[in-house]
């Protein structure tokens, strides 16, 4: 179960409110790389783990809880950027057109739907979706999903950092970037603590997979190309089990033409 | 530009058509872990790479092209499972109720919308969405996204393999599982070929991030807990730059209460 | 069955067309608080009601029909704001950059997809979704959903009213705001006409619910806090059945660790 | 900021695992009436409130935090219903068809995507969306949204309660139904504590709305009907400000035909 | 503006209620081929048409209005199939497992969310989306969209007709299939009444398009294939303006490698 | 199976990069009228066709393959417009506000999520969805869907052409407009090659449809109107089978009131 204190995890100040930046910050709340995604992702991953993975379950759950606090920080940042700005819609508008123009350059729903506050949407106003959450039940697969989530999340935060000059916003983002550094590293450390997790899922009996193509790079160029002698066409594969090879052409077999559908589907295009 | 031959990349046969399995296979076409996702993901990643990453651009584009062929194989598998089965809706039904009952246990849209064929949807009938695609412009971040996609994709394929007894389907899945083994390995090999890609994005000046919390595991338990002395609370972090430490408590700072919204939002709840 | 007359329910004039305002108006058509939602919501609610609720069924259906006319008024307002304006894209552009810039400040799809007309989307261009519609089959629950829909819809309309100076638009919004006043009131009057509708659903035997926590405010603060002596921690509850009380701490029971998943899910992360 | 303890808020036991019920429970997690919605809704509402609404801000935030714990309880219930059942897919299947048939009667993604665990989706497998969240910035409007959310949520829980015989599940649902009773009552008590919140938003100057139709029930029947003398056509309106009246016909004004679109839209359908 | 009468456009009776068929019928309400789509599509198309297309505007609006009545008929059919059936969940269940199994074979939300009634979703429970609506502002393009909508809609209705034995349902579907016949024909007649509508948009100056490839079928096979001498590689094109020709190979030009992104995007994958 | 060459199908150059135009171009990639839609649509249609439609299967598959190359051209155009422009965010900004304002006028995710490159979304940033794809299994229905897709797609391309002055972009769009001309014509030629495809699906026994209303235009005006004597109220219908007639009024039959729902749904709104 969860608890909450009114204090933020880290201070959020805005020197010069900027409703445009409030729109950009939404990506870090409800976007594909945002904090709602990682909070939900780590929770659902944790809830799937049985007793023997207790340490990982705690790791996931504690970080999920921290991410909830990051949503809170970012929502605060959005609201502080929307309110009290001299660039606000109603104050600097000389006529209807310029008002609406200013507003549409922002996220109009932050005003129209939310009264100048944050929303569970991304920087284009597209709602957060549970479809972003990856929780496969296989811990190694999930940890790679988490490395990716923190990597793209940190990239997002650095891009936001680059485009604000506000000292308060820079400071908050510097904190969130640091936490993403930690979280990337902790998921990688957790992966390192597993024995032979590759290829995911490692528990599948590898002899059941097709042995002709499981370590072969297959060229899909129109004509045959020479082996590029790249790290993915020769040498031992990272899973330590196979040797990379090179296939200059896709095998090809069968033409895939299906049987006719049932007459009851009325798929025959012509009058009979 | 693209080319196509009528031959499949690998043969697809179905001994005993099973419309229920046709529903499950949709997850591998239009699902979060499906082939539409990786085909689109690798393409958009490739199209973002400038000249200096030419080798990676080719790697991504050739594999994207292969994945298009996997969508084709799976669509063929779906159609062959839907057509000509003795378990088909219209043939084994004695009355309306049992017909409809059988159908609703399947994916009804494969019949109603598609005339017994495959669709760009997942195993619950939810349409494929571009929101599944991760293409950040940062190659290291993208490669981790690809390791994850192939890891969860291979897990999906093994689960499908486990639940079919059809020799043709087992054979096709054994082929796809093998390709996922290769693809996981090739993305990891590509990651290994980069110099110091961590933390993603590695080009951000790390001195700009908050130095107090960038390698600290932060407990979010209600009361202070002792250091679990886990691989993520001590030792050198996987990025080789920092040393893990342990914080028994979140820092906490400020209460996040925002300024009042503009009167023009009519957010005051009472008549004044 | 439905009928239609070419006349609008209320006149829609635009003195000074403004394509930016046309973007904002979309929220009132296809947004979460928009007219498509209430039209569909009231219809589906009505169609679920059996004979004994005939009066409510008529009430819902007549208002649903009115809301269809409001979509029509708003679509007219959008089109009139998009066409013939001196602020239009093609006329005031000096070069390609300023044209495109002006356009992207608007909703580009109103031009690109719809030829300067209205669309079933919100002010960020996100399509209307059936997921906004609430029709539970329980009349009391549905009437509260309707009070909410009209309350947030009226709030939206007042915000649009605040940000336009066009007399025609102000007049149309003044009419729609008035209708929302009526509709809020009529749903509340309908709620008042029910006997003991609380708690929704009132027909559930209340003795079957857990009697320890059904009127207790439960604090989720980290440490125990004193009873705030608020209207929700003491006194008789609005449903007239229970007395509010205060729990300074969540009960807490069991740790939720699940059994291990089936081996056929290949969730074991390591090679065995 | 948030904290978490491994204990559940209330015990979750399952006597007889049932993967079908695990599908139904998803509605209470990621559905329109589910706990993800209320948790997010109460948070975003709280984060928008300025200092003068501190008491309401705390009320919302504490309840949001409790709802996070309800997601956790339900996810635990889902996983316990999916694992270890004699009705599980792999164990009771005699052949591929019956296996897949059993699976498709369940939510296939709980197996294929999540390894027998819970997901952020509804009972049809449709992902949770931020579009369910209502947070208007106007406290009265938001409180009505919360009454509705708890009313439809409680209705959902009673329907789930009705369709399970498992004593553990009945007990958990009895607890959640009780909490929904409390939450409905607390939002109504909070509404009662406001002075003149109607019509929402009450701070809009009511003289600005059209005075002819703001308390008139408008019939949309094809022919004129007599006043039904219903509680919404006569008497004082619930907001205490107006008197209901009856209009037997919609006013009607103007035909809404728009100007022609710009030639640059190429909307002219014929070759000129 | 709209009007409504309580009478249905055509009688809806159900002899033997069947909750499974109620799930299938949802496709005709909220699906891609459903009545919500055409009702909204014809309305938005009509609202975009200026005065000179008054006849078409009326045609579209009158048919849109009829489609609203079809939603009503189908919603009635759904509810009548869900209620009072001996196959209903609560009555024929001997234990929890078989109850839930029966329910999950149906659309669980029709029970859980809607109390045995219709919803604005498709046969997989996916909500209706405004993204289905096509209204381009170009009348010829829109009329082809309408022919398609009625063609796929009629196909859906025939498949539903095929799979029910209920005389009432067969009769209702026979009526709806007939209306789809009329509507297909009326849109084709409207297309025929236009002068030279091809290629859509016909008002674009055709000399501005690339003259080398505007009537050439371009083979995308890997190797050059002979001209198939098909109706689309030779003869006069249906628009009456060009002559079909055959290109055995795609032209091909340039490699599409983009410039490097701005350093502020931190897209460089390595530490520098 | 598919193949790919690094060459583009047609050259893509940008003289003056314009990040605003990059936003508009997204509609042609991931929008309702975009190239992702047609590529996927033609593929899924092709994969459903049995042997007797081999010529159509090839036609569909070859064009699908070409469309993949159009996505590639457009993605290249987007990236070239985003990178190296003097109008780019970071270079021409004097302070944070103007930077963010410039960015929000663009698609912020092209920068924040994709590092100045293309995405599988439309011009409002809404992700591509499989819900746009129409593949009914009935070839005639599908060919009309394709005529529509190319018609609305060509309309989109002409609108983009109208709003750019960049010679490179005009040239690329001139090429794509030409291909859309060809594709519209080829689908119409394919329709012409079918015998009696109307009404879709033509294989349904037309005597089973209601014979009273299958060629009657039904007025939905409030009062009876005279026959407009339009091409859709008189004369032979385009399918060559029926004669149009005119009904001045909808038939009307039955009131659609459903039976009461099961008590286990707790739909009774009052305490009993």
Automatic annotation (TrEMBL), chains A, B, C, D, E, F:
It comes from the Archaea. Pfam families: Mn_catalase (PF05067). InterPro entries: Ferritin-like (IPR012347), Ferritin-like_SF (IPR009078), Mn_catalase (IPR007760), Mn_catalase_dom (IPR039377). Residues 219-272 are annotated as: Disordered. Belongs to the manganese catalase family. This is Catalase. It comes from Natronococcus jeotgali DSM 18795.
């Amino acid at each position: 179960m969860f608890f909450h204190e009114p204090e933020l995890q880290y201070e959020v100040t805005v020197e010069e409110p900027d409703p445009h930046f409030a729109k950009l910050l939404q990506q870090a709340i409800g976007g594909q790389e945002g904090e709602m995604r990682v909070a939900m992702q780590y929770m659902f991953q944790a809830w799937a783990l049985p007793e023997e993975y207790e340490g990982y379950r705690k790791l996931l759950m504690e970080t999920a809880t921290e991410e909830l606090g990051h949503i809170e920080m970012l929502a605060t940042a959005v609201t502080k950027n929307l309110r009290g700005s001299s660039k606000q819609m109603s104050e600097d508008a000389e006529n209807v057109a310029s008002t609406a123009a200013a507003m549409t350059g922002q996220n109009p729903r932050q005003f129209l739907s939310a009264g100048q506050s944050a929303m569970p949407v991304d920087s284009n106003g597209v709602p957060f979706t549970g479809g972003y959450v990856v929780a496969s039940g296989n811990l190694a697969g999930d940890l790679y999903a988490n490395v990716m989530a923190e990597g793209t999340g940190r990239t997002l935060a650095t891009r936001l950092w680059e485009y604000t000059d506000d000292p308060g916003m820079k400071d908050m983002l510097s904190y969130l970037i640091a936490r993403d550094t930690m979280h990337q590293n902790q998921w990688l450390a957790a992966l390192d603590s597993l024995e032979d997790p590759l290829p995911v899922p490692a528990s599948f009996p590898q002899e059941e997979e097709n042995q002709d193509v499981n370590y072969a790079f297959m060229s899909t160029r129109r004509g045959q190309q020479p082996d590029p002698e790249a790290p993915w066409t020769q040498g031992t594969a990272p899973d330590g089990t196979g040797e990379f090879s090179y296939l200059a052409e896709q095998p090809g077999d069968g033409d895939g033409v299906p049987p006719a559908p049932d007459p009851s589907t009325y798929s025959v295009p012509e009058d009979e």
